[in-house]
Specification:
The chain is α/β, with parallel strands linked by helices. The chain has helices at 17-24, 65-78, 88-96, 120-126, 178-187, 189-194, 204-209, 211-230; strands spanning 4-8, 29-33, 49-52, 82-86, 101-116, 131-142, 149-154, 161-164, 167-170. It has one domain (4-230): Class I glutamine amidotransferase (GATase) domain (Rossmann fold). Helices cover 34% and strands 26% of the residues. Helix 2 (65-78) packs across helix 3. It is globular.
Length: 235
């Protein structure tokens, strides 16, 4: 089987639970460390799927790798190669397929409930789950490209996920591990402090105190989504 290409855009925003999921199923993968200067591949066909992780930058920033990643996503979709995006990754997919990325009304940081849409495609992705506590860390939001199906929303962000056939874009984070949350709280301490008056932003202490209860459910949702997504991989 061809490997899955996983794009990391920041050293602290790796694939987390997703690679645990892949290891359990002996699915090969390759980490492309954009943050460390790895080149963006030009040929999507050498991979069974593309997975785009998060990052602190904006899709609208003038960074040399962004147009290259957008082109690769369009190439993958045209060749029926499955694409999956988390947060920045979801925004990259939206932008690549004709959507726009704009400032969200508020920053959303920490645990927060998301609601699954009532559509048949949403049930296909989320099964019997109607809502769950997702992890958030974003200040921007994507629009739905033409032909996309809305999957998730939260009180602070209307577009939390969309699907286009077998391609999935998430604004929220389902890939989190305890280690990642602790690391993000440390690296993002100033950002948390600057937005502490917002009801959509939790303290580092609250985020970490809620991990024990919420990570198992988050991983259960992630398994459901990832299992559905790998069913579309090209072998």
């Amino acid at each position: 089987m061809k490997p899955i290409a996983i794009f990391r855009h920041a050293a602290t925003e790796g694939p987390g639970y997703f690679t645990e999921f892949l290891h359990e199923r002996a699915i090969p993968w390759q980490l492309i460390r954009i943050d460390a200067g790895d080149a963006v591949p030009q040929d999507a066909s050498i991979y069974s799927g593309l997975v785009l992780m998060g990052g602190p930058m904006s899709v609208n920033d003038d960074l040399p790798w962004i147009p290259q990643v957008l082109a690769l996503v369009r190439q993958a979709v045209a060749q029926n190669i499955s694409v999956l995006g988390h947060c920045l990754g979801g925004q990259l997919i939206s932008r690549a397929l004709g959507g726009v990325v704009t400032r969200n009304p508020v920053k959303e940081i920490g645990w927060g409930e998301v609601t699954v849409s009532g559509s048949e495609p949403a049930r296909t992705w989320f099964g019997d789950t109607h809502s769950f506590e997702a992890f958030h860390w974003h200040g921007e939001t994507f629009s739905l490209p033409q032909g996309a199906v809305h999957l998730l929303s939260s009180a602070y962000c209307a577009n939390q996920a969309f699907a286009m056939g077998k391609h999935l874009a998430l604004q929220c984070h389902v890939e989190m591990t305890g280690e990642m949350i602790r690391s993000w709280c440390e690296v993002g301490a100033d950002e948390i402090a600057a937005s502490s008056s917002s009801t959509a932003v939790q303290s580092a202490q609250t985020m970490q105190a809620q991990m024990a209860d919420r990570l198992p459910q988050l991983h259960a949702v992630a398994r459901q989504l990832y299992q559905r997504w790998i069913a579309g991989l090209i072998h």
